[in-house]
Structures are given as C-alpha cells and as structure tokens.
Amino acid sequence: MKGHKEVNTAKPDPHSINMNTFRAEVARLIAGDDMPTAKEIADAVFEQFTHTVPADVWAAREMILDPGQKVDPRTAFRQIWAYTKDGYARDREILARLDAQNATIRELAGALAQRDGEIDVEALVRRIEVAISGITVRLDVNDHA
After folding, report:
1. Fewer CB within 10 A of the terminal residue: the chain, N end or C end?
2. Is residue 43 part of a domain?
3. Residue 67 lies in a domain
4. Which domain holds residue 93?
C-alpha cells in the first residue's frame, strides 16, 4: 500500500496520515489482532458523549435535571429540542404583545388627535417608537446557590 506522495508527487497525502503508521495498523489487523466490534466502538463513543449533571449548573438548580443524572446524547438532543420549542413559543408571545402595544400606541395617539386637532398622529407615533427603541433593559441574574 502506497500513499499519493509515494507514487505521484503532484497529489499530496492527507497531512494527518503517516503512511508508515497506517501500513503498520493495517498489517496488525490482517495478522488478526483484536479489533473492537462496531457495537463496542458505538458504545465507547456513546459513553464518551455521556456526562453526569453537576449540582451547581442551572438545569440542576432549576430542577430540570437531577444532580448526578447521566445525560446521554439522546437526552441532550431532546433537551435542546424542548428548549428551542419553548423559546419559539415565548418569542411568539412577545411578538404578539409587541403588536398589541403598537396598536395601543396608535389608538391612543389617534384619540389624542381627536381631542386636539393640532396633534400629528404619525409624528407622535414615531416619537414614541423612537423613545421606546432607546430604552435599555438590564437584567441581573442572581446566583441562587
């Protein structure tokens, strides 16, 4: 077995493969050295991606996951899906409230314009929108530990 650079100098071998090491591994396998089964490899990979939930993480403090609970890739993907679904629902709720707020602002500006004919509804709504967009919300997250 020869690598590209051994027979065609114009085509490089993948830089991470040492052909001498690769040939030795192939020879070892042909000679009958024990090779793990596909299941053993899959189990080892699965175990590598499985972790234990520490007590001091948010999910444990919020009682979403139990401290010491094993989280495997399937559980992790389910959690990601659940958090994403929940976040999507919350985003839709916030957008609905924002639409209602904008409609209320426009309605209030219209009511003021009926009382005072000199009020330009569009200009008032723009001023309110600019004022709202300039608001900065600061969220302090306290450690509940």
Report:
1. C
2. no
3. no
4. 72-145
For 58-109, the pLDDT digits (tens) are: 888 888 889 999 888 888 888 888 889 989 999 999 999 999 999 999 999 9
How many CA atoms lie within 13 Å of 139's alpha carbon, on the beta-carbon side? 2
DSSP assignment of 33-60: -----HHHHHHHHHHHT-EEPPTTSHHH
Count of the separate structural domains present in the chain: 1
Verdict on whether the full-model pTM lies above 0.85 = no
Kindly state whether residue 133 falls inside one of the protein's structural domains. yes
Helix (H, G, I), strand (E, B) or coil at 134: coil
Single-letter amino acid code for the residue at 70: K
Rounded CA gap, 107 and 128, in Å?
13
Euclidean distance between CA atoms 31 and 12, whole angstroms: 29
Q: Is 115 inside a domain boundary?
A: yes
Are 25 and 18 within 8 A, CB to CB? Answer: no
| CB neighbourhood size of 109 (10 A) | 19
